[in-house]
Give the backbone structure.
Amino acid sequence: MSRIGNAPVPVPGGVKISQENNSFTVVGPKGTLSRELPGVITIEQQENILLVKRPSDERSHRSLHGLTRTLIANMVEGVTQGFTKNLELYGVGYRAQLQGSKLSLQLGFSHPIEMEAPQGIAFGVETFVPTGENKYLSARITVTGIDKEVVGQIAANLRAYKKPEPYKGKGIRYKGEKVRRKAGKAAKAQR
């Protein structure tokens, strides 16, 4: 039995929901999201909650039940609160700056890496002067938007430009991500 699929989705005030065939649309204060949902799953609206129902206990229906409920809940949360992913830039000489809606990164390559913000996505940059325990932390980058899937994909694309390496920990990492460090050749030679 899917516990996630059976949970009701609360719909806050100011959010309008419309459903036409398999197309599901949510309109809220931050914007509009729409998505094609599986046809076998039905969605019922009762006052200010949504209930997701499946036709049978077949394996494929059970898996679509929880997925559909989560997608709808993410859409409702996105148009009311939005989503944010925080990235940290570690490395001497690594820099990030905004040029309008474009994010420009200096990551030790011979050229800057520039990424244009897709529609519905906003970048934020906070720069630091390296000191103390975070002597290699040079910037924090925030990716903000209403679509959770797009925000996560843009953050993953940014991280893929320079993944954190295990010897010095330089690169782009998610906030709070632990990088497993390795001893270098000098540490091994002293044994």
